[in-house]
Amino acid sequence: MNIKLTNVIAPSFYEVHHAIRNKQYGHYWLKGGRGSTKSSFVSVEIIMGMMSDPDANAVILRKVKETLRESVYEQMLWAIDKLNVSHLWHASLNPLSITYKPTGQKIIFKGADKPKKVKSSKFRRGYAKFIWYEEVDEFHNMQEIRTINQSLVRGGPDIQVFYTYNPPQSQNNWVNTEVEQQKFRQDTLVHSSDYRSVPKEWLGEQFINDAEHLKKSNPKKYEHEYLGIVTGTGAEVFTNITQRRITDDEIARFDKIRRGLDFGFAADPLHYTENYYDKARGRLFIFVEIHQAGLKNKEAVDKIKMFNPMNDWITGDSAEPRTIAEFNDLGLRIRGAKKGPGSVEHGIKWLQDLNEIIIDPERCPNTAREFTQYEIERDINGNLKGTYPDKDNHSIDATRYSLEDEMRGKAKIKTFKGSL
Question: Are residues 219 and 88 in the same domain?
Fold first, then answer.
C-alpha cells in the first residue's frame, strides 16, 4: 500500500488518525457539515486498520437496510480504490460484504430497522474490531445504539466504534444532546469538521460556489448545512443551557442550596433537584437529581435524605397535599409551592431570562435531557402554539418550585402579586 495518507485524509482529521493508531479511545463521534470528508476518513481508517491486523473485521450499520448499498458499501469500495489495494479485496452483493483475500477478513453491512434483532456476527477469523454507525442521527435514540453495541462490542481488544453524522438543526434532537454528554467520557472523542479544511481540488469548484452562494443568501442555513452548526428550530424553550461538569470545589462554595420536588405517579417519575442560584451573575447551577418512576414514599424519602442529610426545607408540588403530609410524617421537611394563575408561564420565563443555566450532565442526565429537549409544540400547519407542553418537564417543574421565593420577589414588581 504505497499511498501518501495526506492524499486521502483531510488535515482536520490528522489528530483523529493518530488517536486511532495509538488506540487512545474506544468511541469516536465525528460530526460535520457537507463536504467535511468524515465518512471518507472512517472508510480509509477501517481498510488500513484491517490490513494491519489479521484479526480485525468490520461491521457497518445504517438505520435502514435499503440505504446500505448506495452509501457505505460504495464508500468502502472508494477507500479501497484510493488506497490502491483493489486487487486484494473481493466485493459481494449477495450477501452485501467485502472480503480481504489474503486472510478472509470481512466487512459486513447491517440494517438496524429492528435494533434488538441485530446479532453479533461470526467471522471465520478474528472479531468485529471496527464498528461504524453512518448517519447515526437516523436512529431513534441512544438506547437503540446501546442495544446493538451490547451484541457487537465483544470478543476482542481495542474495539473502535465510529459514529458519523451531520448535526440536526435542533439542539433538542437526541443525538445533539447525547454528544454533549459523551464529551465527558474518558474513552470517547468528539470531533467537529467542515469543508473549509478540505483541499479545494477534492471538493470541486461547483461545491465551493454553491457553499459561498448559500453563505450570502441564507447565512443560517449555510452554517447548519455546510459548517455543521446546531442553529436551532426556533421552538426551543431554553436557549441558555450550558452542560458541563460542576466540580466538588464549586459545590462546596455554594452557600444557599435550593431544593425542589415534583411528585411522580405510577408511570411518571418523581423528580428531586438541588441547585444554586448565583443572583449577582444571573446563573443557576443544577447538580443533584433523583429521577425515578414507581418509588414508594418511604423509598423516595430515604433517597432524598441521602442528598439532604440536614433535612433542609424542600418545596414540592402543592397539587399533592396528601403526599406532602405523608412525606412530612416520614420525617422530611417539605412545603407546598404557592401556585397561582400564570405560574407556569411566569416560572419558565424567569428561567429563560437567566444568563446561564448550568447543568451537570453526569450528575443530572435527566435534567439535561428535559431542559434541552423542551420545545413549544406546533399545530397541524407547523405554527408554534402559544402554550408550554405539560410533558417531559418534571425537572423543570421541580426547579421552578425550588426557586419560587426568587421568582415571587421579582414578580411583586409586576402583576403576579406574590403568586408562583
Answer: yes
Distance CA 297, CA 287 (A): 23
Look at the pTM and tell me if it is higher than 0.85: no
* Cα–Cα distance for residue pair 15/161, rounded to 1 Å: 17
pLDDT tens for each residue of 31-81? 999 999 999 999 999 999 999 999 999 999 999 999 999 999 999 999 999
The answer to the question of residue 235 being in a domain is no
What is the three-state SS of 233-289? CCCECCCCEEECCCCHHHHHHCCCEEEEEECCCCCCEEEEEEEEEECCCCEEEEEEE
Confidence of residue 414 (pLDDT cuts 50, 70, 90): very low
Those residues with Cβ within 8 angstroms of residue 41's Cβ, 6 or more apart along the chain or in another chain: 9, 10, 13, 16, 17, 30
Residue type, 419: S
Phi, psi (5° rounding) for residue 53? -140, 105
Count of all residues that appear for the chain in the document? 420
Does residue 170 contact residue 233 with C-beta atoms inside 8 Å? yes
Q: Supply the residues annotated as catalytic.
A: 135
Peptide bond into 95 cis (omega under 30): yes
Q: Are residues 57 and 145 in the same domain?
A: yes
Domain that holds residue 371: 241-411
Q: What is the pLDDT of residues 172-211, one digit of tens each?
A: 788 998 998 898 899 999 999 999 999 999 999 999 999 9
Are 245 and 213 contained in the same domain?
Answer: no
For 348-367, the DSSP string reads: HHHHHHSSEEEE-TTT-HHH
